[in-house]
Amino acid sequence: MYHLHVAMTFDATAEAVFDQIADHAVFLTGKGLVCQLVKEGSPDRNGRGAVREVKAGSMLFSEEILEFDRPRRFDYKIVSAMDNGKPTPLDHERGWLTFEQVGTQTRVDWHTRFRVKVPVLGWFAERFFIARTMKPKFLKLLEQARQRVEHSSASRS
User: Fold this and answer.
1) What pTM does this model have?
2) Range 2-156 classified under CATH 3.30.530.20
3) Which site among 22, 96, 108, 155 is 20 to 30 Å from 70 CA-CA?
4) Are the C-beta atoms of residues 102 and 44 closer than 8 Å to each other?
5) pLDDT tens-digit series, residues 131-157
């Protein structure tokens, strides 16, 4: 399994950051990226049991929220991944985001563990193709969320 980890610090409370990132349709949006909630979760619509579809280029991911502990963490699992309508050999163990309040700031750590189920080439694809393309995309999503939440916090001041 390949473990990808990115982190970012926000100038906002854990509650504000968590709410911004847990709103899947807002967080997972950008150039070539669209997310829609297929099934609402509990107790929050984006919470445990929620199912979201994420379209990224030719890829379509179906993800389920496994744990939802506002404002500390949420866990998700990619339950299916399709490329141009065909299943991919992606085995996603899980992904999780943690939110740690440190003074007036919040540190977000985003982890995901996966493997590509293709002998020999899977190892290469995990490390040199998927991880290298995913890491900057994860960081960009966090940066966009940081700008939204910090702008929102500044507007209220």
Assistant:
1) 0.91
2) yes
3) 155
4) no
5) 778 899 999 999 999 999 998 866 665
Contact criterion met (CB below 8 Å) for 37 and 45: yes
How far apart (Å, rounded) are the C-alpha atoms in residues 12 and 75?
21
Distance (Å, whole) CA 76 – CA 113: 11
Q: Please give, one letter per residue, the 3-state secondary structure of the chain.
A: CEEEEEEEEECCCHHHHHHHHHCHHHHCCECCEEEEEEECCECCCCCECCEEEEEECCEEEEEEEEEEECCCEEEEEEEEEEECCEECCEEEEEEEEEEEEECCEEEEEEEEEEEECCCCHHHHHHHHHHHHHHHHHHHHHHHHHHHHHHHHHHHHC
Q: Where are the domains of the chain?
A: 2-156
Alpha-carbon distance of 3 to 12, in angstroms, equals 27
